[in-house]
Amino acid sequence: MTTVQPPGGAGLVLNSFHPREVIPARGQGMWKRHGWSMLWQATVTVGYLALYALIRPLSDAHWQLTAGLRLGLLLLLPYRYWLALVIADTAASAYQSYLDAPRFGVPWAIASSLPLIAFAMPVVWLCREKLALFPSRRLVNFPILLLCALLVSAIWSLVKQGAMVLAKSPGVEITPMILIYLFVGAYVALLTTIPWVVIAKLDYRPGTPWKRLRGFIQGSLALEAAGLLIPMQLILSWLAFHANEQKPVYCLFMFMPVAWLTLKHGWRAAVLGGTFVVACICVLMNYDTPDPMVLQVQAIIAFAITCLIAMGARISAMHQREERERIDVKRAMRLARQSLYVGEMRLRQASETLEHVNGELQLSQNRLLHRFQVMLPANESRMYSKQAATLRDKVQQIAATMHPIAWRRKDLPAALRENIGDVLNAAGIAYSYQIRGRGFGFGMHSSNLHTAIYRLACESVVYICTHMRCSHLRLTLRGVEIGDHRLVVLRVEGALGSSAFGALLFVEGERDRLAQKLGATRLELVELKDHANLFNGELHTRIKGDKLRLTFLLHDIPEMEQERLSTMPPPLRLWAH
């Protein structure tokens, strides 16, 4: 601190800063950000020139790979890097024009030095901003993508023909066929390169490129392409190489395996197969000058790839719709299982409440009877006690009907043994049960599955006893584990006795009250099958002689499973992932 003492006044305290503590100027951060921006611009420029230098030797008039590089970068990069792309494309074009200027003249060199990427920018901007080329980060609008490739190819072919007109010795006659030749070459190159750019844009996730590449190699598309597409293309290429006038026919046949893969896997298969076919055809059709047969083959290629990509996009949209329907069904079934479990929990709460009320009722009745015991005759006191006990038994029975007490206090096997067994014994039906396997205790199977097992067992018992006067009923429950999947087999079988008298030996009226005592709703076979379907299960019925058997196969489905849910586009639009 530094204190300045003016004459006759209070001291004025000033802060003394160390030179290292000087606050930087406000514009210094702006210059730092500007420096990073310039560095990124230079990186884009150098990267474009490096890619152009790698691709240019492989590019020719039949397959203009540099056209795919230009349009692909316009689709991928933000608008702030477009100026760097223009500068880089101008430098690359000027270098090539400078090398060929002595042969074709200065006017041609100046016209050829114009950046072709700049002529495509208005079209790309219109498609991206006004025509919804990318409706979201993971969707592409294929009609607009094909329209963009068509317009860009037309513009670039016009610019190139205009430059050829200015050449002093172009080497070929400038005719409308040259324009078509340039257009088809650029269009085919865009059809086989731009979809790969779109795939990279849609599938890119930070930190997962190698994982996705490994998944693609292990997928069915790569396996079928290696086993079917590549061998057939090699055979057809060999036939086309030795053919003279039938090369267009063999080139058309090359797209047949691509069409088969497209029907199965969608537009990605069309891109993979189309690129491989075009590469084979370009090797076969290595001509330096335009030729009618080459133009015919290029037209076939352009038409075939366009149709395959459009068809593949439609098929992919259909696959997405099927996937969305499958996920909706999964959600509905999961909601139904949750509703079934929530309803069972409410019944359990109501049963526990009734059991608690029944205990309080017993205490109140005992106190009341004990108080008035000296005032009532002995027979009336016994009558009131019997009525109170009957009332408590009815309340207890209602609570057990809502939710088995043995299930709450013990486990599912106890409920199947005690609750169902007591009701059947009261109805005069012999009952036996058997449990095999593991998983019917606490924590092994899901609570939803235990609920379904008990309710299906009760409904099956009521169904069998309703449709036949069985004298013996057998229940078998078995748990099976196959890998990570857990299955449950529930079998309920009713049989008549050895004699007609044994079949008619039952307590009058008790069978009619089975549904009421077990809390069943008298479901029919169709409804029982629907309940089994909630757990991806099946229902099998078998009638053999004097036996009726119901067998349920249920899958244990964890309720906390995570599903891959994605936003699906409207099915009538050619949008695809």
From TrEMBL:
Residues 51-316 form the MASE1 domain. GO terms for cellular component: plasma membrane. InterPro entries: MASE1. The keyword Transcription does not apply. It is found in: Cell membrane. Keywords: Cell membrane, Membrane, Transmembrane, Transmembrane helix. It is a multi-pass membrane protein. It comes from the Bacteria. The lineage of its organism: Bacteria, Pseudomonadati, Pseudomonadota, Gammaproteobacteria, Lysobacterales. This is MASE1 domain-containing protein. It comes from Dyella choica. The chain crosses the membrane at residues 38-55, 67-88, 108-127, 139-158, 178-200, 221-241, 270-287, 293-317.
